[in-house]
Amino acid sequence: MIIDCHGHYTTAPKQHEGWRQQQIAAFDAKTAPPPRPGMTDDEIRETIVNGQLKLQKERGTDLTIFSPRAAGMGHHLGGAAESAVWSRACNDLIQRVCNLFPQNFVGVCMLPQTTGVSPANCTEELERCVKELGFIGCNLNPDPSGGYWKDPPLTDRYWYPIYEKMVELDVPGMVHVSASCNPCFHGTGAHYINGDTTAFMQFITADLFKDFPTLRFIIPHGGGAVPYHWGRYRGLAQDMKKPPLKDHLLKNVYFDTCVYHLPGIELLTRVIPLDNILFASEMLGAVRGIDPETGNNYDDTKRYIDALSIPAADKQKIFEGNIKKVFPRLGAKLAQAR
Amino acid sequence: MIIDCHGHYTTAPKQHEGWRQQQIAAFDAKTAPPPRPGMTDDEIRETIVNGQLKLQKERGTDLTIFSPRAAGMGHHLGGAAESAVWSRACNDLIQRVCNLFPQNFVGVCMLPQTTGVSPANCTEELERCVKELGFIGCNLNPDPSGGYWKDPPLTDRYWYPIYEKMVELDVPGMVHVSASCNPCFHGTGAHYINGDTTAFMQFITADLFKDFPTLRFIIPHGGGAVPYHWGRYRGLAQDMKKPPLKDHLLKNVYFDTCVYHLPGIELLTRVIPLDNILFASEMLGAVRGIDPETGNNYDDTKRYIDALSIPAADKQKIFEGNIKKVFPRLGAKLAQAR
To answer: What's the CA gap between A114 and A141, in Å, rounded?
Structure first.
């Protein structure tokens, strides 16, 4: 079985994000937003059948762990009340996709984060998504300010309430920023990758996983810059008298394979223990074109794993085994869907 | 000849940065700073003989392109007047090192940048350093706010006055942030690498090098996350209808080899054209320890280049040829020093 642990609903019916614009406009104008628009099952089905599902079939993957569009989370827009309403709307929509295609999609939620508002604010929605909607994880934005990095580092006790709930529910978090409203940072080309690098370095400097030994994070986009600079990170940890990274972080931190060329994937699988690598493509996502050097889509990351000179059993870990370990609720979902 | 194009004076006599603290304290207290402390040639000589020069000899490199301590630039501290005085002091100190060891060090200056103050403010100091002190390049901080990214992207016309002067003087700039005052960003582990990634992505989105076809930048630390995500960057440029990166940026943008493990250097030299790679170690810098996996210093990057399976002529390009092209004033300096 081939599980893609990182997909966003980037193709949702237009009225979904159209309403979001109305909601934020209403917030700015201090008026009430219009009611949420309706979406038929057929409308949703069409966006999936011609989008993610089509690509799953073409590329030979079986299941996508699916969450709301990352850039659409927009935690820097509106206030906590707007974020709460929008999160529920986005997560409910993911559930509809998962209910329509239970063999192909399992849900992960976004959280109603807001800069300067305690993440304790997010525990209720996480619990609802896991217990009522059957979701198996969450996305956690390390920078709800959208590129100005105004909240404390992820190792600060500020974040502990959401970690306590994640541990209680036994769900992992993908550390994933949303859109950048800082003109210095291109979204998918700088803010995403910087967010990944920043989070990993935050984890190095502290002892978060002493407090939460079973807390698990996925750092997407191949871990940002981290595997390429693995010597730097090993050396920095050593200078700080931290344990080797394998002991310090790799029981809790995982990297996905959203790296869009073979040499990058080769580096990733060479320097990071294979037990810490989870298959993912983020399709349809940041990079949608065809690589003229290969004739294939940049984000068809399965081809890169297929091309690796590692034993089939190791590939199966990346495609399935590791993901089932990191998302323990996935097993029950799969049994249900059969 | 083996030229290290990225070294900072991280071992300056203590009174140098001691005075900087007094200067900033005086700024905060709205009083006058004390006069600059004296430093004897012997004091300076000692910090070099037991630091950079010792490592040059041990590692078998010949010359370091040398600039003030990057984290010490502190463009977010004080105001424009303080930055001007501090820049002159730092650059003058670099000149003293270069005069004491003309065979081993050639100067690159820091610029008196300040958030929100036009880089036109920096042209005079750049000209002084090049024409009077014999420097061959500058370091340009893309984020003088120290981790809050408050100034426009490097492709904005805001920066054009300093580019005009760089072009006029035919000197390249290394895009190098200073310390981070944002608690989210570890300096050498996040802010440095993010700065590199961010700058490269800024260059992709615009057409800066149409306006300045001879302007040259070095992106240090192996280009941040860029080579690891080369497929992503090629794909993003393609989605934006930009020319292939080779044509769009690689006549103007170069990467150094400050990547502290062999797999990273192998990736760099595999995906980035060898003409765009410049040897560097940033010793004594961010990572000072010995890698237990190799028994050698993490930042002894010459060993990684030595270990590559590429022709000797290509290694010589990385060690010398490319650097002389990017720093055209270096030839005259070397002739002088003989």
So the answer is: 10
Note the pTM of the prediction, 2 decimals.
Answer: 0.98
Alpha-carbon gap: B155 to the closest alpha carbon of chain A (Å):
10
Backbone angles phi, psi at A100, to 5 degrees: -75, -35
Of A46, A164, A266, A282, which one is the catalytic site residue? Answer: A282
Report the alpha-carbon distance of residue A100 to residue B39 in Å, rounded: 75
Amino acid A109: pLDDT: 98
Q: Which class for A87: exposed (0-12), middle (13-18), buried (19 or more C-beta within 10 A)?
A: buried
Q: Which residues of B touch A298 (CB under 8 A)?
A: 231-232, 234-235
**Taking 80 as the threshold, does the pLDDT of residue B338 lie above it?**
no
Is the Cβ pair B225, A271 closer than 8 Å?
A: no
Helical spans, DSSP H, in B101-191 = 123-127, 160-169
Q: Which residues of A touch B282 (CB under 8 A)?
A: none
Residue A285 pLDDT class (50, 70, 90 cuts): confident
The pair of three-digit structure tokens given for residue B290, joined into one six-digit string:
């010995």
Catalytic annotation on B282? yes
| Active-site hit among B82, B125, B282, B320 | B282
Cβ-based burial of A197 (10 A; exposed 0-12, middle 13-18, buried ≥19):
buried
Q: pLDDT at position A337, please?
A: 78
Q: What single DSSP character describes residue B200?
A: H
Give the pLDDT score at A195.
98
Spell out which residues of chain B touch residue A263, defining contact as CB-CB under 8 Å: 230, 267, 270-271
Residue B84: per-residue pLDDT:
98
